[in-house]
Design goal:
heterodimer, A: mainly alpha, Arc Repressor Mutant, subunit A, B: alpha+beta, outer membrane lipoprotein receptor (LolB), chain A, 12-stranded mixed β-sheet
């Protein structure tokens, strides 16, 4: 994904707030892929991402009246998505495991560049506290301030975690390269 | 950890600067540090590579969950949706485009108008000034097949006046078993030279999915296309509902609805009048059918006259879910569309239209002196001896064709209306139909000239009047074999036929187009008269048959409803025909696109 996720037209959000299902449908069609991707990167499980995506939009419609535009619409929607993802894990009694969770039902999409696949694998191995900010920033173009709002962290902590995430990924990639050159 | 302690803090700044999250003084300090620290410079390169790789991740295949989401939302919040807000989103999207300066500047907002005729006039004017158009739509269709509740599509239309057109329909339906059902993806590209369409090979939708296997896609091309070629015409009513709204004033204006700051006229009409609009996004592929009485609600933007949305409903369920719903999600008037967009491939079955551009002498007798304000567009010849001269202005067009006189033309134009152009010249006029445009034929001594156009009838006839070819009446005998003769009966001679009555009532807009009397066999006499709408007839029109020699009603296999109009009165819904005996005279009215009440009223007016 290149650049930030686009914000919807304020009129569409306003119409959806007033109960216009067609306007809400616009929002669903526009953001369902982003919501699904975010869920997937948090849970690393496709069917759980499906459930969370549905739940997030149903909840978004329910709470839309309370959305007053203090934050960006996408920040608001991603916060709901995140909460739904945690609820999903909680429901399954796996709340504590989320942070350490690795592997699972990750399906890799073949790319033309091995670095991309390596990054993706390395990303899946990152602890959640590092994975979440870097996913939001690099894959959704969210700003540090927005991530700080969503995760209820100081901006400085976001900055430091993003760096740690990238440095860890860089280290993992370097290790992978070394391993490959040793093998060959 | 490879980083040494003094560098650790500065390395967070390297990462933040990649995200443009570092302020100017910190940037300067960072550059200072980097110029002296090779390790941090290497670290910067690594971070950059990681960031680039993350951002260049190929997209996951994300499922479309909008159906289940919306169903859940509707189930939980069903009653809260005010129907008048239904097109809020589209209007909002339109408004957003206007705000963003993509603007639609070619018509001015007009004061409140309510009359259907006014709306039709505005649409006509807009069709003259429209030069380019691009829009996206969302289509929802119900009732196509019992096994598929809802089909959803997205569509994109691009147009550059007068003949470049492109339609891309993408089927987004979640079929019960993907791979078994034909995906209804349709592509149509037309330009001045070619027409190309790609669509799934389908079969009657009730027999789906098994009948469509193996799934195949068909492609057809027309090369050397004639100007405004009838068999490869582009469906422009989705851009401006010109034919739909100007062909008859028989639509209701329900009001001006203010939605999200935009004014849209809410117009109601029957499917039989809205055929060009409803079918405009269905030039190929497989779609559900509609009945002539299905109700069409159309919201048309007051400033641009673009259709913002339309819905088709069964009259039996006026408040139910629409059978078809089309909503514009964006529209704009692109300044300079890429020529590539309208480049049509040559694949599949190829038909040669045979048209070759050629400069024709403008002074020829068959070339009209007046062209209703349209500019000369392109001219040429077709191998079979046709010369064609065409004119256009925006979406409005006119084509004049000259060919060698041929007896065949008569038979095809049987029900054309005879229109005197002058004391010495007569023309034959036909309204637009589902697959034809308004047409005027002039049968001259040395040439047959015909005009086709989306101009209104009156303007088309005035163009025909300016052609220096004397149109001659066609022979009144249209059939003669074994003593059975069919003769054309001019309107003024109808009253001389003693057994036939003239209808004292016809629904608004219907006029006599042609009448025939047949005689033969054993004193067999029948008069058949056709009545059609003047501008366009997308159905059968009205046919009234009267005969003093028919003694018995023919047995009919279909269900018949007895009606109180005379002896043996009966109504066949399947044929749309009312039959009865008025004393000894057999009378029948066939009008499949009118309801029984209206047909009975016509029938009672015959007495």
């Amino acid at each position: 994904m290149e650049g930030a996720v686009q914000e919807p037209e304020p009129q569409i959000v306003a119409a959806a707030r007033s109960g216009d299902l067609a306007a809400f449908e616009d929002l669903v069609r526009r953001y369902q892929a982003d919501v699904w991707r975010l869920s997937f990167h948090l849970l690393r499980n496709e069917s759980e991402a499906d459930d969370v995506t549905q739940e997030a939009f149903v909840r978004a419609f329910r709470f839309l009246k309370r959305y007053r535009g203090e934050s960006k619409f996408t920040t608001w929607l991603f916060t709901i998505t995140r909460n739904c993802a945690f609820d999903e894990v909680r429901k399954a009694g796996r709340r504590r495991k989320l942070a350490e969770r690795a592997g699972g039902e990750v399906r890799l999409i073949s790319g033309d560049h091995s670095l991309r696949i390596e990054v993706r694998e390395a990303l899946a191995d990152l602890p959640l506290e590092l994975r979440e900010p870097v996913v939001l920033i690099d894959m959704f173009g969210t700003s540090y301030r927005e991530v700080a709002t969503m995760l209820r962290l100081p901006v400085g902590t976001v900055k430091s975690r993003v760096h740690r995430a990238r440095a860890t990924l860089a280290g993992a990639l370097l290790a992978h390269e070394e391993q490959e050159s040793n093998e060959s | 950890m490879r980083a040494e302690r003094p560098c650790e803090h500065i390395r967070e700044d390297i990462s933040a600067r990649l995200d443009e999250e570092l302020d100017v003084p910190a940037c300067a300090a960072l550059d200072e540090h980097l110029s002296n620290c090779a390790e941090c410079r290497a670290h910067e390169r690594e971070l950059r590579a990681v960031r680039r790789a993350l951002r260049a991740q190929p997209a996951e295949s994300v499922p479309d969950l909008s159906g289940p989401i919306l169903e859940r939302v509707a189930r939980e919040h069903g009653p809260v949706f005010p129907t008048q807000l239904k097109i809020g989103a589209i209007a909002a999207a339109a408004a957003a485009l206007l705000v963003a300066g993509i603007g639609l500047p070619w018509t001015n907002p007009s004061p409140d108008i309510a009359a259907a005729d006014d709306i039709a006039a505005h649409v006509r004017a807009a069709a003259r000034s429209l030069t380019s158009y691009r829009a996206t739509y969302r289509i929802t269709e119900r009732g196509w097949n019992p096994k598929v509740d809802v089909r959803r599509f997205s569509a994109e239309v691009r147009f550059e006046a007068p003949e470049k057109f492109r339609l891309d329909i993408t089927d987004e339906t979640l079929y019960p078993r993907p791979g078994l059902w034909p995906e209804n993806d349709v592509e149509l590209i037309a330009n001045e030279r070619r027409y190309w369409i790609k669509e799934p090979v389908s079969c009657p939708s009730q027999s789906l999915p098994s009948c469509a296997l193996p799934l195949e896609v068909e492609q057809r091309t027309v090369i050397r296309r004639q100007p405004f070629d009838g068999s490869a015409r582009v469906p422009t009513d989705i851009i401006l509902p010109l034919e739909t709204l100007t062909s008859s004033s028989g639509f209701k204006v329900l009001g001006l609805e203010e939605v999200a700051g935009r004014s849209a006229y809410h117009v109601e009409l029957a499917y039989r009048q809205a055929v060009p609009l409803v079918t405009s996004l269905q030039p190929g592929g497989s779609w559900r059918d509609f009945g002539p009485f299905d109700r069409v609600d159309l919201w048309i933007d007051r400033d641009t006259w673009f259709p913002l949305a339309f819905e088709v409903r069964s009259p039996a369920q006026p408040h139910g879910e629409p059978l078809l719903s089309v909503k514009a999600t964006s529209f704009s008037k692109p300044e300079a569309p890429h020529a590539r967009v309208f480049r049509a491939p040559v694949t599949g079955s190829v038909r040669d239209g045979g048209f070759a551009a050629e400069a024709l002498p403008p002074g020829a007798s068959w070339v009209p002196e007046l062209s209703a304000g349209l500019d000369h567009y392109r001219s040429g010849v077709v191998g079979g001896g046709q010369a064609i001269r065409s004119y256009a202005d925006g979406m409005t067009w006119l084509k004049v064709v000259r060919e060698r006189p041929s007896g065949n033309s008569f038979a095809y134009r049987r029900t054309a209306e005879r229109v005197p152009l002058s004391a010495d010249s007569v023309a034959y006029y036909e309204p637009a139909g589902v697959s034809s445009k308004r047409r005027v034929d002039l049968y001259g001594k040395n040439a047959h000239v015909y005009l086709e156009s989306n101009l209104a009838r009156a303007r088309l006839l005035s163009v025909a009047r300016s052609i220096a070819v004397e149109g001659r009446p066609i022979p009144s005998e249209v059939y003669n074999e074994d003593g059975f003769v069919i003769m054309r009966v001019p309107a003024h001679r109808l009253e001389r036929i003693d057994y036939a009555s003239d209808p004292s009532y016809l629904p608004a807009g219907y006029e006599l187009s042609a009448a025939f009397q047949s005689k033969g066999g054993r004193s067999n006499k029948t008069l058949t008269a056709y009545y059609r709408r003047l501008e366009a007839e997308y159905g059968f029109g009205i046919r009234i048959t009267q005969s003093p020699t028919v003694a018995l009603l023919a047995p009919a296999p279909e269900e018949l409803v007895p009606v109180d109009i005379g002896r043996d009165g009966r109504w066949s819904r399947a044929r749309g025909e009312l039959e009865w005996f008025d004393g000894s005279i057999y009378r029948a009215i066939r009008a499949p696109s009118l309801d029984l009440t209206t047909v009975l009223r016509i029938g009672r007016g015959l007495r």
